[in-house]
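Collaborator request, handled under Task 6.
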Amino acid sequence: MSRFVNLKSSAAGRPLSLFSAARKSSRSTKSPKRIAKSMEGCRLPPDLLLEIAWHMEKPRHVLDFCLTSKASYKYLLPALFSVLEIQTVEKCQEQLNFLLRRPCISRHVRKLILRPSHLCVASENILHAENEIIRTVELLAPNLTCLNTFIWDGHERPDDSIWTTLRNSCTKLRYVGTGVGARGIETDSQLFNFSNLKGFIFHNKWRERKFLNLSEILESEPLPSKLWDMLLNRCPDLEELSLGSVGSSMNMKILDIRPLTQGRWPSLQKLSLGHTLMLGEDEELTVEKNSEFSEFLCAHSTLKKLRLPYPVHYPRLDLANSQIQLESYSGSLSSVIGLLPQCQNLKELVLCADEHAAWYVPYIRHILRLLPTVTTLAVWLDLSFRFDVENSVTGEQIKQESDHMVIIRSILAECPQLEHFKVLCSTKRKYGFSMNELSRALVNAPRGLKTLEITKVHTAVVEENMVNVAARTFHQLPDLEKLVLRYAMKPWSIRKPMILRQSGTYETILRENSGHVKLFRVDEIGAGLFTCFNRHYTHSLRPLHRQVTQTVSKLRLL
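Structure tokens returned to the collaborator:
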């Protein structure tokens, strides 16, 4: 049974007493039934149990809490099914049909996020399955009486009837999101008939096409006037707004969002702008045009999270008089330099708007030194380009300066408070690295590191079994709670999307008294040599303890 961790304190500032008891009991190997039996004399109000469940950050912790007894399962259903994020076509169909058969459970769903084709290439079968999923949602909608958020992340936009159904059946719906693929934007869509939204997501999706019309691709696509009428005139309390997808593609149009600068939302906290433009190709850059977007940002002093695309279609920012204090920023390295006064309390920094070669690393390290409060960091590296003929750099120097493990270790050294670290590495196979080298990069990693994500291009010959990499990493970083490893099929870029080959998620379940991980949960999905696989099991570290400890000790001496 998992430890009941990450519970927040009560309103009085004191830890919840039941949490302490649950944490002690979870260290044992007792089953949920035995734990429930040992607590028979402890009778607590159902409202208190539900309040404890609401404070649990991870869904599986809520599930473990529910399984302590039949009574607790009954009372904790609202927390267990409040947020559902479902990936893959099969899971979407299975779980939506489950909810359709059980109206008493579906009425507890508050947030429904569907990603049926997450990081998958579009095909006729997948597109047909997406239509079936949407039809199931339409049947399910009358039972979703508490639904507050609905986000569709498929290859194509759903049939327009889904928005009418949701608007009529789910009166509490305040956050809506969808993607648009090759079918394009429907100017008179029912999606734009919502009012009083608090969150809106509108992404253009990548879709492979056999025939490319270059003039059509280079031309920007204006968003429908009905969309702007909805956002500017009928959603005054907007808190979150996301327009355009991350990155770009030769198969994806750029969205023209210039009317955005007319908006004024006093409660806006999160603004995410992807493959979009604020300056037209033939537009003359005047002082007025250059300041419009900066004035728009300055008018929203409540802004806490900001994501900007690569600044080729955006004017230079001037936020000298702004009262904004960002907690999260995602964008290009050049943009964050101009936002340093607004980033003094920054907690999250995502530098994934474009790939960074080896010569960008010193600038990244310099920025991190100026932002000591960062606890979450994501960086996109691509060390495929490493030759410097003009300066006559030797082969040995090139190899040393483009060593992935040395670079990752140098970045970690600049973030003593780091808790969450994510690395995307799209380096070509010829110059890439193997996962068995990861230990070198983590020798002096911050002790408080809780989650680690590594995504790289798969190298067919020398890749080690993912679970062995996870076992070694948990031994090396005793405080690590979650590790995510991903292999991409081939190198990707801002013009070509990532296609995953294999993904593994590893979460700690049980620790020894010394603090070392004893047992962790394994979730792996991907394509093997002959067939696809989907594995879920637990893995013990005890047989590997002595061998891995010796390996880590040797690494620390280097």
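The cover message to the collaborator said: "Residues 70 and 407 are 51 Å apart (CA to CA). The chain has a mean pLDDT of 81. Please let us know whether this matches your experimental observations."
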